[in-house]
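Retry 2 of 3 after timeout on previous attempt. Resubmitting structure tokens to design endpoint.
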């Protein structure tokens, strides 16, 4: 134990050196960087790459006018130095130089060092240089395939496959070294990994300037390492290979660039054939890797350790989120060292929708994480009949974070889940038939609270049942150039049959909106019974998803093959660049995991998902992980959290744990 503590002390010291030394080196002959204000911005615009971030901070740490920004296009010499400044409104943006190749290696060193602090089983991995070479080539190919993304991330970008293309060579060598380090320092510690996956919500691991995630590299490495001939020849693998061929040969004729924004690292920026193959193979490796890691570590699952880690991560996400909101230097280092997809919140004020996401890229995703942490806290507290000060501090912090995230659905589901656990433990002869009572209670409480919090929402069923159509038509191509009074008049009159006959209807309205309209006005509808459109529209109003799902309906205009089998894993371009919706700024996702599956895998994916879910419900035993999995699945009906790698991994581990965990709720 003493040796382990000594080793970890040395690793922490090494980590601090690696963390900050790149930002300490200055090239300026001036001893101190000048204090920056509106009057001397020119000094930093002229003397670029001379002052280190450390030198700048010594003079400007308390400067409230500045906002640190990442400069992705800097040269290696400019890494960690101030590369210019600009006045934007009443603030001064200060740009800190970074470099794609250095980011890959430096950030990996940081995260591998953190993982190496876990207990090792002392076994030495069998080094496989051929494997390192193959998987490095695979990830380097992404840089060529997603040219539009990476050319905007490096001035030296070149996709030419030549020996003197030092840009590609440096990327390949960075990956090669990363996989050697992973195999040497992570492989001996895999047995304990199941208890530490919550840390993915603290250390997100997305490489700066890249569209890939460190933990995607790590898990896919073990995905390919664990492959064998029997796995490749299995019916699941062969079926998936057939699907990949369908996706590849049905690719769009037009190659587009998708701005990955807050889902960077786990989504494709291109819809080219190469991108379809890359991300399809990557999904296969990730799923195989998660299964391999779970099987390897499931015997070490410790519910107390897991809960403590959830509480610890929850505490630090709140504390660091607040620190980043109050100080631009904390915000910068959070973004770089934790590998965030998106820069954290810059103030404690909530944004549109009254949410505050803190460190996270998504208020919904972090809200669901907080929900899992709180449910585990109550479960462990009931089991042990005691609460430690550590747990109390952690859960209080998490409750504050959940309050700020304003994830109402998650809060209500937490309450129902905790009430169910308490009932199972304290009500004698509690039976499964009470589950129906809990569901009814949840729906009643949800509708009541939503109506209280949103007094402006109509209670007119006739309006709510068609509100989704109304909003969807408002986003149609008919309004690309402003008002269309004739068409708008038909919308407000609910004259959908005339809308179906309107000029150039098929050119301006998506097939999804068309489907909703035709279902609403169909002669086969049964009086007094809601039709498909009415049910979806009514439900969307009460879970505050009408606008988001209306945008989806306006945008989703698939081909026949896309409707059946989707566009392929992580392929959102064809959906996003629909020609049936008016121009809208910003990234607006479908806001439903079901709709995400529809885009990627079509109705085939939806049907398989439903079938698998009912098989799971009928065959799995009731335990805490089954409740957590259901908690997440219900949340995913109205959120895109499955598009974030941390949520994806958490869902996978909780799903598999629910099938192997033997301890009952009582």
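Retry 2 succeeded. Sequence:
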């Amino acid at each position: 134990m003493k040796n382990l503590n000594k080793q970890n002390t040395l690793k922490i010291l090494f980590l601090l050196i690696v963390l900050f030394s790149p930002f300490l080196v200055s090239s300026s002959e001036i001893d101190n960087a000048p204090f920056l204000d509106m009057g001397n911005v020119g000094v930093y615009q002229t003397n670029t790459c001379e002052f280190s971030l450390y030198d700048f901070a010594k003079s400007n740490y308390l400067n409230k006018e500045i906002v640190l920004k990442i400069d992705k296009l800097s040269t290696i010499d400019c890494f960690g130095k101030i590369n210019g400044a600009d006045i934007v409104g009443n603030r001064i943006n200060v740009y800190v130089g970074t470099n794609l190749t250095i980011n890959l290696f430096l950030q990996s060193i940081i995260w591998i060092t953190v993982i190496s602090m876990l207990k090792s089983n002392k076994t030495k991995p069998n080094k496989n240089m051929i494997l390192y070479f193959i998987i490095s080539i695979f990830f380097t190919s992404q840089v060529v395939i997603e040219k539009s993304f990476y050319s905007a991330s490096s001035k030296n970008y070149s996709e030419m496959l030549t020996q003197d293309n030092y840009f590609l060579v440096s990327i390949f060598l960075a990956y090669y070294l990363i996989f050697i380090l992973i195999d040497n320092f992570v492989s001996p510690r895999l047995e304990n990994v199941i208890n530490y996956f919550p840390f993915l919500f603290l250390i997100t691991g997305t490489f700066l300037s890249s569209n890939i995630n460190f933990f995607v590299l790590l898990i896919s490495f073990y995905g390919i390492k664990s492959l064998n001939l029997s796995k490749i020849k299995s019916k699941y693998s062969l079926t998936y290979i057939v699907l990949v061929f369908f996706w590849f040969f049905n690719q769009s004729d037009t190659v587009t660039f998708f701005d990955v924004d807050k889902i960077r690292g786990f989504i494709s920026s291109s819809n080219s054939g190469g991108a379809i193959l890359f991300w399809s193979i990557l999904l296969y490796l990730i799923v195989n890797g998660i299964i391999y890691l779970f099987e390897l570590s499931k015997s070490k699952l410790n519910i107390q350790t897991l809960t403590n880690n959830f509480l610890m991560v929850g505490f630090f996400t709140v504390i660091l989120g607040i620190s980043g909101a109050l100080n631009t230097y904390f915000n910068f280092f959070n973004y770089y060292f934790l590998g965030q997809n998106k820069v954290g919140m810059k103030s404690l004020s909530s944004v549109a929708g009254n949410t505050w996401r803190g460190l996270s890229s998504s208020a919904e995703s972090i809200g669901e994480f907080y929900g899992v942490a709180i449910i585990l806290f109550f479960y462990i507290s009931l089991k042990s009949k005691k609460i430690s000060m550590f747990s109390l501090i952690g859960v209080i912090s998490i409750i504050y974070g959940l309050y700020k995230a304003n994830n109402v659905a998650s809060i209500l589901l937490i309450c129902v889940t905790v009430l169910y656990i308490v009932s199972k433990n304290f009500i004698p002869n509690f039976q499964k038939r009470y589950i129906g009572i809990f569901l009814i209670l949840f729906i009643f409480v949800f509708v009541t609270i939503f109506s209280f919090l949103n007094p402006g929402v109509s209670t007119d069923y006739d309006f709510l049942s068609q509100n989704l159509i109304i909003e969807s038509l408002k986003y149609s191509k008919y309004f690309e150039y402003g008002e269309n009074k004739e068409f708008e008049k038909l919308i407000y009159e609910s004259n959908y049959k005339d809308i179906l006959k309107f000029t150039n209807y098929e050119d301006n309205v998506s097939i999804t909106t068309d489907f909703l309209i035709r279902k609403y006005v169909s002669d086969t509808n049964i009086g007094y019974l809601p039709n498909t459109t009415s049910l979806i529209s009514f439900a969307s109003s009460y879970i505050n998803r009408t606008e988001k799902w209306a945008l989806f309906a306006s945008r989703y205009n698939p081909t026949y093959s896309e409707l059946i089998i989707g566009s392929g894993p992580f392929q959102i371009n064809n959906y996003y660049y629909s020609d049936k919706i008016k121009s809208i700024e910003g990234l607006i996702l479908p806001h439903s995991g079901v709709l995400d599956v529809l885009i990627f895998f079509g109705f085939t994916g939806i049907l398989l998902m439903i079938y698998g879910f009912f098989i799971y419900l009928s065959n799995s035993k009731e335990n805490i992980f089954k409740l957590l999995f259901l908690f997440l699945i219900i949340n995913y009906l109205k959120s895109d959290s499955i598009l974030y790698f941390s949520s994806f991994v958490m869902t996978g581990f909780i799903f598999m744990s629910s099938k192997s965990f033997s301890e009952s709720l009582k």
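Attempt log closed. Residues 200 and 601 are 26 Å apart (CA to CA).
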